[in-house]
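To assess whether the prediction recovers the assembly geometry, we first specified each molecular entity separately, as shown.
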Amino acid sequence: MIEVIIDEDRCVKCLECVDVCPTEVIVNKDDKPFVEKPEKCIGCLSCSYVCRADAIYHRGIHIEEKIVRNVYLEEKVKKFV
Amino acid sequence: MSEEVGGIMRVGIVKLASCSGCQVALLDTYEKFLEIAEKVVYAPIIKDNRELPECDVVLVEGAVRTEHELEMLKNAREKAKTLVAFGSCSALGGISSMGSIYKSEKLIGEVYGTEINHKLLDFAYPIDHFVNVDYYIPGCPPTPEIISRFIEGILTGNVVRYDYPVCAECGRLVVHTKIDRVRKTELPDPKVCLLSQGYICLGSVTRGGCKAVCTKAGVPCRGCRGPTDKVMVMPCKDYLTEIHDRIRRIAGFDVKFEDIASIYAFVFTSDMMDKQVSRIREIIRIGRIGGGKA
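The predicted structure of the complete assembly is given in tokenized form:
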């Protein structure tokens, strides 16, 4: 099962994740994003893709590793402090 | 400070095409700098040495603009065990790379009038265009906190990375609004996101760690720390597309390219931003053919 975790401290409440979620896992609750039905998550990672504050994480997902297309850049990025 | 901590005994600082601001920021770390002060064996701004000796860590400041600087850089790579790109100019091209939108002959003609002894390269390159780099510390300049945490990290062998954008530290709240133009001069609301108010703020695509000093003071982020991990790795993400997309979602209007052409100021020659969706090449080409403003 996929877990969706929203880091409250980092979130800036822009609600872009609510707009972009295709299965309405993340909903608008009191002007804050709220994970309502995590069992409906299909793991498209659109929410973490649009998140400007890098506040959304997924657990129990295995696709993330395969998204990387440029190995050279991936190695280089790890050297940035 | 004992010498055996982390095995680091010799630190060198090499200056290429830059303003020395990063070295001044290093001096601004006060007591942290004292930890390594005895170990600094070569630094043109602090010490009076001619030759760069064998070093464990060499901090390279500035972009590579002339052939002489290229030789200095290669020499530094030979002498250093760990080479660190220190500041945005050496890590990403930085402000020095903005000269790349003009032809070298035009630059020399504009500044000196005639030919000069040093031969200019065609662009001002970040140092990783020529040599391998072990760490990058972007920032214009990197804040003393970032530098002191890096020094701590390299002495203990555990370097801390800042993998989140400026937005995560800023604390301004996003409000969905309807605006019809880019704002530049008016005073912004202190609590509301600058993008919502129509300012071109690069906080959402820029690496954090600076404690968002600019945006907290009401100045839009100019992106001096360079792109975030996400923007660097994703091939379809670029400053222009991201900022354009966010402004349309949040403030409800389409910005013109002319209004936000300056967003690339710190990354002109970095290969991290050399993407299909990026318009850096176009800006360089226009600058070269027309010789006008980008």
